[in-house]
């Protein structure tokens, strides 16, 4: 009878350990999800800042050929980013009009 009680006690000790492991595993997973959400927000914020700066810089008159090519490359990068992420700036008509204007030069 003593061995039956010992085996039950061992089993009862395993349950809290398993619960602790499961709790720890889910809390780490939740932290990773929150961290990735923060990273995602940061990426979109940085994209918005860079997009605004690009639009200002590329809207200037009399761009030299190097600046013109840089703007056209930036437009390509924006389109590539927009295929991966959905940002507020994606599909902006002003960008498309500016790109067309610069392409015609």
Keywords:
mainly alpha, 3 helices, 85% helix, rod-shaped
Written account of the structure:
With 105 residues, the protein is mainly alpha-helical. The chain has one domain. Helices cover 85% and strands 0% of the residues. Helix 1 runs antiparallel to helix 2 and helix 2 runs antiparallel to helix 3. The chain is rod-shaped. The termini are far apart.
- Low-pLDDT sequence parts: none
Number of strands: 0
- Helix and strand run: HHH
What is the mean pLDDT? 78
General form: rod-shaped
Number of helices: 3
Using only C-alpha atoms, the radius of gyration works out to 28 Å
Q: What profile does the largest beta sheet have?
A: none
Q: Work out the helicity level.
A: over 70%
Strand content: under 5%
Total individual domains: 1
Task: Give the class from helix and strand content and strand pairing.
Answer: mainly alpha
- Give the distance, in angstroms, between the N- and C-terminal Cα atoms: 94 Å
């Amino acid at each position: 009878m003593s061995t039956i009680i010992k085996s039950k006690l061992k089993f009862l000790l395993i349950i809290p350990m398993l619960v602790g492991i499961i709790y720890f595993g889910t809390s780490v997973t939740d932290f990773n999800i929150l961290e990735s959400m923060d990273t995602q927000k940061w990426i979109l914020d940085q994209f918005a800042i860079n997009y605004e700066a690009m639009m200002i810089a590329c809207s200037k008159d009399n761009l030299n050929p190097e600046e013109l090519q840089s703007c056209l490359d930036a437009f390509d990068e924006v389109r590539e980013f927009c295929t991966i992420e959905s940002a507020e700036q994606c599909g902006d008509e002003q960008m498309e009009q500016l790109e067309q204007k610069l392409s015609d030069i």
